[in-house]
Design a protein that fits this description.
The complex is a heterotrimer.
Chain A: H1 5-16, H2 61-68, E1 74-81, E2 84-91, H3 96-105, E3 113-122, E4 126-134, E5 141-148, E6 154-156, H4 165-176, E7 179-181
Parallel strand pairs in A: 2-5, 6-7
Antiparallel strand pairs in A: 1-2, 3-4, 4-5
Chain B: H1 2-8, H2 33-41, H3 52-56, H4 65-75, E1 79-80, H5 86-95, E2 117-121, H6 129-138, E3 144-148, H7 149-154, E4 176-178, H8 185-201
Parallel strand pairs in B: 1-2, 2-3, 3-4
Helix pairs in contact in B: 4-8, 5-8
Chain C: E1 2-4, E2 10-12, E3 14-18, E4 30-36, E5 39-46, H1 54-59, H2 66-73, H3 78-93, H4 99-127, H5 133-153, E6 162-163, E7 166-167, H6 175-197, H7 201-207, H8 215-220, H9 226-230, H10 237-240, H11 261-285, E8 306-314, E9 317-325, E10 333-337, H12 339-344, H13 347-351, H14 356-366, H15 370-374
Antiparallel strand pairs in C: 1-2, 3-4, 4-5, 6-7, 8-9, 9-10
The chains are: A alpha/beta, B alpha/beta, C alpha+beta.
Chain lengths: 227, 205, 375
Amino acid sequence: MTLPDGQEEEAQGDAGAAPETPPPAEAAAPTPKPAAERPARPAKEAEPKEAPRIPPPAGSINEILAAAVPGVAMLAYMVPTLQGEAVAVEVGRDDLVPVMTAARDDKRLDLKYLRCLSGVDWQDEGLEVVYHLSSFTTRHQLTVKTRVTYDDPVVPSLASLFPAANWHERETRDMFGIVFDGHPNLVPLLLPDDMTDHFPLRKDNPLQEIEEWQGENLREGAGEGEE
Amino acid sequence: MAEVIAQKAPPATTPEKQIEGAPVVVPEREKTGVEREAERLTPAPYEPGTALYRQVLPGIMQMPVDALLAFARESSLWPMTFGLACCAIEMIATYMPHHDLDRFGIVPWPSPRQSDVMIVSGTVTKKMAPAVKLLYEQMPNPKWVIAMGACATNGGPYTRYDRVLQGVDKIIPVDVYVPGCPPRPEALMDGFIALQHKIMEERSK
Amino acid sequence: MVAEHEQGLDIVDMPINMGPQHPSTHGVFRMVLVISGEKVVDVTPHIGYMHRGGEKLMEAMDYRQGIGYADRTEYLAQFSAELGYCLAVEKLMGIEVPERAEYIRIILTELNRLSSHFMFMGAFGIDSGLFGTSFTYAFREREYIQDVFEEVSGDRLMYAYFRVGGLAWEVTDNFTQRVHEVLKKTQKGIKDLDDLLTKNEIFMARCQNIGAFTADRAIAYGLSGPLLRASGVNWDLRRDEPYSIYPRFTFQIPVGNYGDVYDRYLVRLEEMRQSVSIIEQALEKLPPEGPIVPEKMPRRLRTPPGEVYAKVESPRGEWGVYLVSKGGDKPYRLKMRSPSFCNLSALREMTVGQFLADAVMILGSMDIVLCDVDR
């Protein structure tokens, strides 16, 4: 079974780090090669930290979208799906409503089905809201992303465009603290009303520790008996 | 009734050769429907005082009152249907005829006011906790609680999330813990039997 | 809203709380209905009573432990959830699943669809007034299917049998025979429930023309699954956005006309028959021998950075996994797009204007799973 590169590196590192202690005669440890002869290790920094952004091929739907909303800066790339790849588009927060309106209303795109709306917490780079759209008639799929900062986590609401976004936006606000401007009813959905001060899915919110005082609440005589 | 029918029966046919001294063989004929019915409706002979249960148990049974009450309570525990999460599916499967709970006298009852046991099956979140406590207080005494599953025992697989109550015994006293995720129907039945033993043992409290 | 009566009495709409604990078995869901007489004027669903933080906990679990959480989120269609999760991770890692594992996955997922729809029939019969009959029928069939699952995976309810790359271990030797037996019994069970419910006058009177939802509104609300198909939209992920080896099977998609509660019931009933047909085709084509994990399976499951949105057709609708990875062996963000959550958001529009008793039927016809709604 081939091990991934990381473990091979570690094995070599361990063998290379013990030139001072001479290996015992009985052990069958191989003598480490001198430093000049060791093969060059791939640097750990070469591991990609981000997925490579492949621009979409010519004729993809991001061109139709760009034509429908001229003057909007959007960064388009491909993301994998189970059936191949789909187009993803990153827009600025203020351009979100025109872009989504064009996506929905343009007859060539007809992206009326909002599948999923999720928030992602990129710690230093802000908070992100990801919308997945698709169409039944033209079979297109599009992912729209927009990023906001921690200081100003306000995103315009799409509840009037897509009724499906209503509950998703309430949930994202509960989980991340992103305020959706223009939402008709932005009350807590999943969290209890008195516990909405800190946002569970943000990365700075840790998991709670397991409390150990299980036994204090048991009644007297509990635990005795044969069962 | 039987004699009346016998008089009206047709005569048996005689054999062709009748040998002197030989008995006349009357072939068996089928009984008519009326005769069969008459036999069926004739009560069997019965002498009073010979019923089986009287021979097995004497007429008077002696039992301390607290044991009698405990026996009555444990034989007909009515749980409140309080299915919260995945354990509810296994709880329902235990009620269903494959692993029957009705043979223990356990009938699921939706109202808390008329039930004896509360089976907390599933994770109790902090949003749900006041409702659980209210339902427990609505049940009249004597009442018991079975914590079914890992989530009700100590938070289960979701214990590290800060909106989850780590075990229902933080808000209500629990009598029997049934471990498992979800516990098998046999395990829940074992939990009920353990509760029955507990009721019998604690009968004088 | 207050209306003045002739004799000076005030008529006020009454709020009714169908609290977190109510006798129907849908779980902890709270509806506050405002009714005027018998007609529902307003509905406010309150959810979140089962919000257990599955998404946050999955960020702390690696790709093998996360399968258990996916199970527990969708506890009636566990294999669909596991399949969605495994497909997402496999797409990111670029792993190809061997043939035999694919076929077994499909067989088990479709059996799970059958058992989930049986549960729907049982619970829906109770909602419509049958006090337990349909439930006992349904659970009898579910027990047969659960026996097969228990032989294969070891657990009655939370299977955790799929792994990234294939399956956890090989199935039992008599797997094909057992599934054939179960299919025979299941077909009889489907027929039993069909005879009990479909042409039943009371059932039809309780279900027809209730909660009708047009196709445009269904698409706008993001509905999926049998609700979308009952409203007339011809869309099934297994055929239109196929995953795994579904393109090799021929099956039909039932589509309704009116979008009412009766259509949703009929769509699910017909889906059960189609599932039986898919399982039979898969059993014929199942390779008798073969690996169940790829040979070059890495020991530690690390995904490269990237994102994927994987969607499968669960019995409730489109179950999606939006997985964002920054490298490493744990997901950075895993969002479970649950069909029950999206279907439930349309409850208000479906229920306003109907009678109070029909509100229960509409909720039952959505076939929601509360752990899925609240995650």
